[in-house]
Specification:
Blueprint: H1 7-30, H2 37-50, E1 54-55, E2 68-71, E3 74-76, E4 90-99, E5 102-111, H3 117-135, H4 143-156, E6 160-161, E7 167-169, E8 176-180, E9 197-200, E10 203-205, E11 211-213, E12 220-222, E13 228-230, E14 233-238, E15 241-244
Helix pairs in contact: 1-2, 3-4
Length: 251
């Protein structure tokens, strides 16, 4: 069932989104060769505690960390680890914040030091893909319009769109209906309605779109070892157009 949120619920999620965006701004300053994703995870734990919030994904289906940290060919759900990030890596930090019952979800891919032109271009196209999808998040549009816009753009740029993981509804739990694929046909799927809150989170690969699962049964990586990037925002559908609840003051 697709739930539409009340004004009160949206305001709670807006506050959570503002906190989550602030965390990503801090992480942006921290990312450099030599830091570990475990250090980033511990920073997020402390930041949330200081601001009266919790990491909603910690404990979700047994997941042990406040963040997911996916490096290079890891598509999503990478575990934070103690190995230092290296110059030229890319790393996606993904988290769900719970602030007084309001949830927000956002992932961001960061360049570590100086990255290759190929990696830099992947990040640019992936971020653009996110906003291509957000532009279609309008009342009366269909979910397929979002995925189609992302797929058309990314594939025209020579990249592939991961199909095994999707965006989703959010609040009051992490994953709710509807699923938001980042590929597909226009004018297909449920209609978007005012008051719906969803995530749009395209995962874009340089190589093939397929994924394979690590032995930990969480981390997905590309089948061909190519780089993968992801950008995600939490969006509320309004009569005036999509509103980004996890905006980092750059939109």
């Amino acid at each position: 069932m697709i739930n539409r949120k009340s004004t009160r619920e949206i305001e709670m999620m807006r506050a959570a989104g503002k906190l989550l965006a602030a965390i990503h701004k801090e992480i942006r300053k921290m990312i450099k060769p030599g830091i570990t994703t475990m250090e980033i995870d511990q920073f997020v734990e402390r930041y949330l505690e200081k601001h009266g919030a919790t990491a909603e994904q910690k404990g979700y289906n047994g997941y042990a960390y406040a963040t997911c940290a996916s490096i290079n060919d890891e598509i999503c759900h990478g575990f934070p680890r103690k190995e230092p990030l290296k110059n030229g890596d890319i790393v996606t930090i993904d988290m769900v914040v719970n602030l007084n019952g309001g949830l927000a979800d956002s992932a961001w891919t960061y360049a570590v030091g100086e990255v290759s032109e190929a990696a830099e271009r992947l990040l640019e196209v992936t971020k653009n893909s996110l906003y291509k999808g957000i532009e279609k998040a309008l009342p009366g549009s269909r979910i397929g319009d979002i995925g189609h816009a992302i797929q058309q753009y990314a594939e025209a740029e020579g990249y592939s769109v991961v199909r095994d993981f999707t965006g989703h509804g959010i609040g009051p739990t992490i994953h709710e209906d509807p699923h938001i694929p980042h590929f597909g046909l226009p004018n297909k799927g449920p209609r978007l309605k005012e008051g719906m809150v969803i995530t749009i989170e395209p995962m874009i690969n340089i190589g093939e779109w397929g994924s394979q699962m690590d032995d930990n049964n969480w981390t997905a990586r590309t089948v061909d070892g190519s780089l993968s990037a992801q950008y995600e925002h939490t969006i509320v559908i309004t009569k005036d157009g999509p509103v980004i609840l996890t905006d980092q003051d750059e939109e």
